[in-house]
Amino acid sequence: MKIDTKEKILLCALELFAKKGFDACSMNEIAAEANVNKATIYYYFTNKEYIYEAVLVHVLSGFYTTLESDVTKEVTPQKKLLAYIYAFGKNFQKTEKMAPLMLRELASGGDNLSIEAKKIIFKNITLLNHIVELGKSENIFLEQEVFVLYLMIVGTMNMYTATSSFRKKIPPENTLSGFDLDAQELAHYIFSMVEKGIKI
Fold first, then answer.
1. Is there a contact between 141 and 135 (Cβ–Cβ < 8 Å)?
2. What is the fold, at CATH topology level, of the domain defined by 56-198?
3. Comparing C-alpha atoms, which of 134, 188, 124 is closest to residue 156?
4. Domain-wise residue ranges, the chain
5. Which residues pair with 158 in a beta bridge?
6. Residue range 29-49, pLDDT digits in tens
7. How far apart are CA 92 and CA 30, in angstroms?
8. Please, what is the Cα angle at 37 between 36 and 40, to 5 degrees?
9. 174-184: per-residue pLDDT in tens?
10. Which of 21, 27, 99 is nearest to 59 (CA)?
């Protein structure tokens, strides 16, 4: 399927923002990476801030739609929680550049996150809260600090994905486990750890 020019610019910008961060990335570099001239970029985006916002909102909103759908399909709080965790794993492995991009952004204090991007992230947290509340109402889950729980889940998924290159360089004589889990295996492991901590 052919990618249109605007989509191509967004994908190339995502690649560069993830690699270099917002401040170190220039419009000239984005244009060169997308193989278009700067005038073409300015046709679609007013400035670098608009491109950055468009990249984040595009990726985050698409992911939230999938996340909500995956969670809604499940009935029990436990299965909803597993679906929630697995959705993040699938997304970070599918869009590998999102992990380093979000790590860079959060490390800088989220200064470049737009209001719209923050709203989508908050919807992710709110959805997790709904799962916890459902579990509490059914006397399955304990009271939780939901934001901390969110950070445990997403932070682990994010860091695991972001360390993909590092994990591939582990010496072959290594006898430790956990370096080569796929998204489903990692999701189940995180779920088992989380469930032990929140289950009544």
1. yes
2. Tetracycline Repressor; domain 2 (1.10.357)
3. 188
4. 56-198
5. none
6. 999 999 999 999 999 999 999
7. 22
8. 85
9. 888 999 999 99
10. 99
